[in-house]
Amino acid sequence: MSTPSSILFTLTILILLCSLHSCVCDNRLIQETCKNCSKSDPNIRYKFCITSFLSDRRSHCAKNLHELGLISIKLTRRNVTDTSAHINELLKKKKSLDPFVKACLNDCLEVYSDAISTLREAIRDYKAKRYADSNVKLSSIVDASTTCEDGFKQKNYVISPLTKRNNDTFQLSAIALSIINMLIHMDKLKGTF
Ligand SMILES: *[C@@H]1O[C@H](CO)[C@@H](O)[C@H](O)[C@H]1NC(C)=O
Ligand SMILES: *[C@@H]1O[C@H](CO)[C@@H](O)[C@H](O)[C@H]1NC(C)=O
Ligand SMILES: *[C@@H]1O[C@H](CO)[C@@H](O)[C@H](O)[C@H]1NC(C)=O
């Protein structure tokens, strides 16, 4: 069945699928932004930044830095929400938790639960372009991840079960913060002309 019309049909379908999967959009904005983020903050690893954005289909076609910034905050929120649920599971499952570890996990749970509502406000501020307010809230998310991780370090026989998650949240919120600071900088430049 390889009549010209069926070939044309197949081609049309392919092009349609391709545009649906946004393979027609390029990732230059992501690359450039991640380069700038990792340059401005040595805690942000370029590869982590790229992988995080590419994991979210919406970012492939992000038209500008503002859109990409919102995606980075939403990625942070997804991470924080998942970690909060994970801590709940850890506390439920292990009845025989070391009392110190249990206390640390409870502290982390409190910090991460607060972070979820803080992120909701950060998104509202961000959408209204109140970047300075959003900056303050994102900074507290960076702090939340280090507060949680540092809790476990108070006793050297304990290994934090949340190191990777804290590190992920740390880097994601640092990326969002870095983008917000670029936007603040761009607003300032606009104001001087
Ligand atoms: C990245 O930084 C360069 C040099 O400071 C700047 O020209 C460019 O606009 C920035 N790109 C983004 C996406 O912020
Ligand atoms: C958190 O974000 C990182 C980076 O995007 C990702 O690799 C990881 O799977 C996420 N973790 C959760 C629990 O969502
Ligand atoms: C996060 O993990 C990366 C790679 O595993 C490491 O290079 C980096 O130092 C860690 N960052 C923090 C704040 O622990």
From TrEMBL:
Residues 25-179 form the Pectinesterase inhibitor domain. One of its GO terms (cellular component) is extracellular region. Gene3D superfamilies: Invertase/pectin methylesterase inhibitor family protein. Residues 1-25 form the signal peptide. InterPro entries: Invertase/methylesterase_inhib, Pectinesterase_inhib_dom, Pla_a_1-like. It comes from the Eukaryota. Pfam families: PMEI. One of its GO terms (molecular function) is enzyme inhibitor activity. Coiled coil: none annotated. Keywords: Disulfide bond, Signal. Belongs to the PMEI family. This is Pectinesterase inhibitor domain-containing protein. It comes from Clitoria ternatea.
